[in-house]
Design brief:
Length: 265
């Protein structure tokens, strides 16, 4: 992990309250694993006091050399409101890469992804790395959900990478009007994947974990939670274990990616 002052490459508005932030960083981020996160702080800003965690959305590469990382974020509070105002060449304190990422066994051929809202962020990094490593994924489907059409992010980017995308919205303004777990469960029942990966709100993850358990499908999920220190010191990101009597996990060091059978949501 590295603590550095990273210069802003771009800070681009995508749609609605979503932005993509490019940061120039240490070349050793080439070893980052999809599902890992970084922790940001804006120099000179006294509030909020604590750092904020963000999934790595993708690596920024030039001729195969890693020059930086990109983060996908949504403006939801004081920190992200300020973050949306930074410009090219501004400096942000960057700490990472942190945590444990996804682990895709070599025998996985059918892969299902479930992402709600900004939970889509780590999925792009994962797909790009699988492509880069020439992994033989014969079927890859993304179940992408949002409250409205404006909340659906990255559909065309995933389609361009050969991913089959199934879109749902709560209000029916785009795709099917239902929760993403409805078509996901139907797909798992009819054509179960070798592995199911999910990232999104806690309620969605609990439902996905239930689907995986019912149909005996292996499932990894990335938790969206506050991870202030990123090193397991503040103990603010405790996660309950499924095994009674076992010590609590901490998302920042034991996760944020967990096997769905090992935790209680």
């Amino acid at each position: 992990m590295f603590l550095e002052d990273a210069s802003v490459l771009w800070n681009t508005h995508v749609q609605s309250d979503y932005y993509r932030l490019g940061l120039r960083c240490h070349a050793r981020y080439r070893h980052a694993i999809p599902g890992q996160f970084v922790s940001l702080h804006l120099p000179g800003q006294k509030s909020p006091l604590l750092r904020r965690p963000f999934s790595i959305h993708r690596l920024v590469e030039t001729d195969g050399a890693v020059q930086g990382i990109e983060i996908l974020y949504k403006v939801v509070g004081e920190f992200t409101q300020t973050l949306a105002g930074v410009g090219t060449d501004d400096v942000i304190s960057l700490f990472g890469p942190l945590g444990n990422g996804f682990s895709i066994p070599v025998d996985v051929r059918r892969l299902y992804l479930a992402a709600g809202g900004v939970g889509v962020a780590p999925m792009m990094f994962l797909i790009r790395q699988l492509k880069k490593n020439n992994r033989e994924i014969t079927r890859c489907s993304l179940f992408l959900g949002g409250r409205t059409r404006e909340e659906v992010i990255g559909e065309s980017d995933f389609s361009a990478l050969g991913v089959s995308v199934h879109v749902t919205t709560d209000d029916g303004s785009y795709g099917d009007q239902c929760l993403l777990t409805t078509p996901l469960e139907a797909a798992v029942q009819n054509d179960p994947p070798d592995l199911l990966i999910a990232c999104g709100p806690k309620g969605m993850l609990a439902c996905v974990a239930g689907i995986a358990e019912r149909y005996q499908v292996k499932c990894q999920m990335s938790l969206e939670t506050m991870m202030a220190c990123g090193m397991g010191v503040c103990l603010g990101c405790a996660v309950a274990p499924s095994e009674i009597g076992s010590p609590y996990f901490h998302a920042c060091i034991d996760g944020p990616v967990f096997d769905s059978q090992t935790i209680v949501l």
